[in-house]
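We modelled the chain as a single entity of 97 amino acids. Its sequence is:
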Amino acid sequence: MTTVYRAGMQATQKGDAFTPQSDAKIRLRLEVYDALAAQRNVKRVVAQARLHGIGRQHMFDIRAGRHLPSLPLAMRMANDLGTTVDALFEKVAEVPA
């Protein structure tokens, strides 16, 4: 295994990457998000992206479930809409193939 050195950190093995412990997937609750955004008169995806300080393609990807926002972004989205992260996002169990 290759040893990786990081500034100010101890050496770690390359294979020590984080792996999620569950197969659950997180996704944006579109109906909740759209209702809260509409209350603020922000209906277009481009305007929603601007509200949260991200690019429009990033917002399209979050809405489509192709991208999961980072925790700081999820918290900012919830704060911008006056709600909680739990209200905006839901855990969806993966169906085994």
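As a brief sanity check on the tokenised model: Strands lie at 3-4, 12-13, 25-28, 89-92. The mean pLDDT is 82.
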